[in-house]
Amino acid sequence: MGMAQRKRERRELITHLLEQDWDVFGTLKFVNGRTISSTTANTLLRSYRNRVDRVFFGHAAERRNIRVPRWCFAHEGSDAENFHVHFLLQSPIADTEHACCVLNAIWAQHHQQTGPLAKNWIIPVINRQNAANYVTREYWRMGSATVLDEISWCGTRLAEMAKYEHRAQAQRMERAASPLWLRHAQQALQAQQAAYVADNGNLGLKRG
Q1: Is there a domain that residue 206 lies in?
Q2: Residue 205: inside a domain, yes or no?
Q3: What does DSSP say about strands 70-75 and 24-28: parallel, antiparallel, or unpaired?
Q4: Packed helices 167-176 and 96-110: angle between N→C axes, nearest 10 degrees
Q5: Which element (helix H / strand E) includes 155?
Q6: What whole-number distance in Å separates Cα of residue 173 and Cα of residue 170?
Q7: C-alpha R_g of the chain
């Protein structure tokens, strides 16, 4: 595939993303993205996806296929050896910042190989264009392989998710992320938001 074709496909992908509803940018890191196997990484990402859906939607995640809308992308870093994942996501609850903290805390506690709170990056989006550019920025090298269709989802509307904002959901979130974990996640979020605002929503290079 030629570079011109990949540029065209990337532009089309960005246009598609900007037509979708999302308000969170995320980066999921591993303790060591250079040594983790693709099999282990994929297993952890799929189980994390399922865990997040169950936390926010309970049994409806499986029985009714109610899932958090997300568009996920594999990245390999500047040297093509540092595997990590970026995503765009529609917050499943009205409090977007709290959703970011819960999502980070679940990943950080998920497995001994998943990245710690400060290493991940899950924040409300300021500039949608910049976020869409960022998650697709390795398309020139990876092509469509950068798009992780198997853990992405776009079949749940905001109005449907709002039906699950009740006490049972709050209790599931409390079980998934203790007050201590949430406090540390909030501290990480505040530091990341400060850097994000200082960078005018450009996301910079420190996210990998």
Answers
A1: no
A2: no
A3: unpaired
A4: 40
A5: none
A6: 5
A7: 16
95-136: pLDDT as tens digits: 999 999 999 999 999 999 999 999 999 999 999 999 999 999
Strand partners, 70: 89, 153
| Residue at 81 is within a domain | yes
pLDDT top residue among 79 and 34: 34
Is the Cβ–Cβ distance between 27 and 134 less than 8 Å?
Answer: no
Q: Which two tokens stand for residue 95?
A: 């409090």
Domain that holds residue 149: 3-198
102: left (phi over 0), alpha (psi -120 to 50) or beta: alpha
Token representation of residue 6: 């990949």
Any domain includes 135: yes
Tokens representing 185 are: 């996640």
Closest CA to 117 of 107, 125, 127: 107
What is the count of structural domains for the chain?
1
Q: What is the pTM of this model?
A: 0.93
